[in-house]
Amino acid sequence: MEVNTYFNSRDPAFRDPTGAVADGTRVHFRITLPRSLSCSGAVLVVQRDGGGVHVGNMFWCGMNGDDHEWWECHYTPDVPGLYFYHFELRTSRGHSALKKDLGGSARPGGSEDWQLTVYDRNFETPDWLAGGILYQIFPDRFRNSGNRKQNVPADRRMHARWNEQVEWRPNREGKITNSDFFGGDLVGITEKLDYLHSLGVTCLYLNPIFESHSNHRYDTANYEKIDPLLGDEKDFRVLCDEARRRGMRVLIDGVFSHTGSDSVYFNREGRYGPGGAYRDRNSPYYPWYTFRNWPNDYECWWNFVTLPNVRETNPAYMEYIAGKNGILHKWLELGASGWRLDVADELPDEFLDALTRSVKGYDPNALVLGEVWEDASNKTAYGVRRRYLLGGQLDSVMNYPFRDAILAFLGGDHASLVMDRIETIVENYPPQVLRLLMNSLGTHDTERVLSVLGGEPVGFHDRAWQAAQHLTPEQREIAVEKLHLASLLQFTLPGVPCIYYGDEAGVEGCRDPFNRATYPWDHEDETLLSWFRMLGAMRHEHGDILAEGKFRSIYAHGDVLAFERYIETEKGEEALFVAVNRGAENAVVPGIDYTHAKHVLGARFRPDTTPGDDFKLPAYGCSVFRLPPQKKE
C-alpha cells in the first residue's frame, strides 16, 4: 500500500471495525511507521470520558513495503461512553505522540485525540423510517381546508388571502407577537396526502399542533388539546389513519422545556381564569416553574417572558408528561408514531431517560428524535457531556452538520474540508442512529434554501430589508441549479431526507418569519417538483442501499464531491456512486470503473469508454449510477 499517513481511523487497514462500536467489541488498531524513526516501542493511550486511562502496548507485526513497518494491538471498551485515544512512540529521536489531523489521519502536527463512540450493545432504533423520506409541515401555512373553525380565540388576526406576506412589523406597542394566522389545518394536510405520496414521503413531521396563541405554537397553552384553528382530536386521528393507509407515519413536535405564559399552566395573561402558577401560589402548576420573585420575576427560555421555563425533573411535571396516562401516551394512542423533541439539549438526562422509557414502553417502534444543532455524539450542554446516542435516550437527531456541509460546499468551501465534516459524523454516530438522521436543507429555524443558494447573505440586515428580498431571475436560475445538487446530496447521504414544505415548490424567504410563508398551491415551480419526484422514486427504488448502506468517500477535490453508499450481499458488494460538480465548468472524477454500471439519475456515462477512463460531469451537473455486485478480496 502507498504510505502517506501513519494511521487513519476511517480505514479498516488501520482500525477495524471503523466507526462507532457496541460495548464489548474488540477493536484492532494498527499504525505504520517509517523505519527511519527507529521505533523501539509504541503504546495506545485511551482516555474514557469521565473515567480512567488505559495504556496498551503495541507489538511489531511486520513490514509495510521496504521502508515502513506495522505495529498493532487490540482494545475492548467494556462500557458505553466516549473514548479518546492517541498513540505514543519511543524512537531514536525521543518520545513523540501521533494525534489526529484532517480526515481522521495521523500526520506530524496533529493535535487532537481521535474519538471512539461506544454505544449500548442492546441499543435498537425503529426500522420503519430507514430509507424513507420526511416532510416537515408548519401547520398554519401548509393548507387551509376552508372548513369552519370552532372556538377560535377572538384575538387572533386572520389573513384575508392565502398568498399574503406574513406579518413582520411590530404591533402598536412595539412587540412582535406572531399572532397572524392563515388558517392551515389538519384536514387540509389530510386532503394533500396524495400529493405528499407522489413525492415519496413516508413520514410527516408536524411543527407543534397543541393549543397555543402564536402561529408557531412553540408557546404551548394546553398539551391536551389540538389548537382550535387546526381542528380537533378526530381530525388528528383521521390524518394519522389516512397517512398510514398510504404508507406514511406522523411525527409530532414535543415542546417540553417551557410552556407559554398564556397557558392553562402559567396563565400570566388571565385567559384561563383565576388559576395558574402566575396567579396562584397554591396552583398545582406552581412547582413546575422557578420564580425568583413571584409573580413577575421567573426563569424563562432565552429571556422571552412569554416562554417560562419548566422544571423538567419536577415529579408532578414528569408524571404529567411521561406517566402512564401522560401526554406522550395520549398522542401515541391517537395515532402519532413518535416525537421530535424541541431543544433536546435543554432537557436534562433524567427527563430524557423517563421520556424515552415512557415512549418505548408504550410502543418500542415509536421514534424519539431530538433537536441538536451540533455533533450530538460529543455535545456538552450546560457543562454536562450528553449521552443522547449511546442508548436509552434519542433514536436520532436533526442533522444540521450535514446541512452546513452541503451548503458550505455549494458556497465554495474546499471539497476536502466538506467531506471531512461528513465523514466525522459518519464516524462518530452509531449506525442505527446514522440511518435515521433527519437531513434537512431548511427548517422553520433557517432561511429558505433557495434564498441561501442564490441570494445575498442576510447577515445583520433587519426585517424590513428581509421583507423586500426576492431572487432576480438570474439569481433564481443559479439557485435552482444548486438546489438540484444540494437535494441530491441530501437524498443520498446517510440518514433520511426531510423536505421543508414548499422547498420542493420553489418557495423563497429569509429568516423567521419570512421562511414560514404559505405553500404556493397552483403556483409551484413544476421543474423543481419534477426533480423532487425523481429523487423520491430513486430513493425508493434503491432503498436497499440507501436505508442501511455504509458510506465511502471517493473523491473530494476542486468543485467535485463524490462518494459511494454500499452494502454487502451474497453476490458481493453493491454500491450507488454519487457525484456532483458545483462549478460552472465541466469537471472529471478520475479512475472510476463504470463499465457495467446502471445509470440512475443525472449525467450519463459515454458507452465508448473503457475501465479507468475519467468520468465526466457537466457544469452544475450530477450523476448517480449503480455498480453491479463485486467480490472483494
Task: Give a verbal description of the structure.
The chain has 633 residues and is α/β, with parallel strands linked by helices. It has four domains: 113 residues, Immunoglobulins (Immunoglobulin-like); 351 residues, TIM Barrel, CATH 3.20.20.80; 53 residues, no CATH class; 81 residues, Golgi alpha-mannosidase II (Immunoglobulin-like). Helices cover 21% and strands 27% of the residues. The protein is built from 14 helices and 35 strands. The strands form ten sheets. It has an eight-stranded parallel beta sheet with strand order 26-23-22-19-16-13-28-27. Strand 30 and strand 31 form a beta hairpin. Helix 7 packs across helix 12. The chain is globular, with a radius of gyration of 26 Å. The two termini are 15 Å apart. The mean pLDDT is 95.
> How many distinct beta strands?
35
Low-confidence stretches: none
Going by CATH, the architecture of the largest domain would be Alpha-Beta Barrel
Largest sheet: 8 strands, parallel
Computed Rg: 26 Å
C-alpha end-to-end distance: 15 Å
Class by alpha and beta content: alpha/beta
- Biggest sheet, strands in spatial order? 26-23-22-19-16-13-28-27
Output the CATH homologous superfamily of the largest domain. Glycosidases
| Helix proportion | 10-25%
Shape, principal axes of CA atoms: globular
Quote the average pLDDT: 95
CATH topology of the largest domain: the name is TIM Barrel
The first-level CATH class of the largest domain is given as Alpha Beta
